[in-house]
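This entry is passed on directly below:
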Amino acid sequence: MTPKRPEGAGAFPKRAPSPAPKSPRRAPLYAALDLGTNSCRMLIAEPRGSQFRVIDSFSKSVQLGAGLEASGLLSRASIGRTIQALRVCQQKLSRHDVGTMRLVATEACRRATNGAAFMARVRRETGLTLDVITPLEEAQLAVVSCAPLVSPETDQLLVVDIGGGSTELVWIDLTDVERSQRRRAIMRLHGGFEAGVGDSGPSARVVDWISVPLGVATLRDQFRDVEDDAARFALMSWFFEENLMEFAPYKSEQSREGFQIVGTSGTVTTVAASHLGLKRYDRNRVDGLRMTSDQIDKVIRSYLALGPDGRRLDPRIGLDRHALIMSGVAILQALLRCWPTDRLSVADRGLREGMLYAQMAADGVLASEESA
């Protein structure tokens, strides 16, 4: 007699409930990419209280603007290097399933006659859409990124962002803002430099801002034909100062009392690392460090004493930075000649951090400093 098959035989058994607890839902991820004249940098982060926590990052010297000063074009080699770097960024964005991102390009793409064609090729080959931002937005983002480093005792603030192709300077008056609210007032400038008085109190007042079309790469290229190292440095510093004539605060002497400069750039962080004698870069020691004009001048004089060969071998400067450091410190020296300070704060942060703060603030995912 053929055995009778019981009902339900052969059916897939029901899956037993897992005893493991469900993993907590991850906070939404944000990304910010800054494609500059010299470097391609990206941060992926999640909001954490009033700040954010970096999940992944990328930084590569692509020298996109190499030869731009002479030809007005982005070269084939520069484009190839940059697209390779952007492919890595695209892979990281996909791997982390980033929901909100801001991807921008700055001075090199603004100035190059083939900049639009390059942007189209980036979209075609990497799937990434980059916005070529204005100098004004670049300055706004730099200011927002530096807000946590501003001292409550600062009445007058100069934010300096030395890039590869341009340098942004923003002068901010904080005298009408309560000391405890000054950092928050600067953060609110991500909405524009014309922000007025709001419900949360007076805003920081932007006295003037300027975007000088000279950065570490473009200034170096302007004086590449000068053979003497010291003469080239002096000419670069003088030439940069000549371009500050239309900046309103240039015309008035500034007291050191209540005055602070915040500098954000590879130049400023390299000078800080040299001042500390670091043979291996340590962001925790550099970001937020305060230096005096005299300390910075001592580092600059040591660079001049080393000469090109010595700078190339100096571990404090690094191989990626040695060819650009003297044009960067020429800019820095010109600024300190105009506004000597005992409080230059070093910011290892820039457009990426500004974009992350702006995106998270717009989405309302950052806690206020009081509740964080």
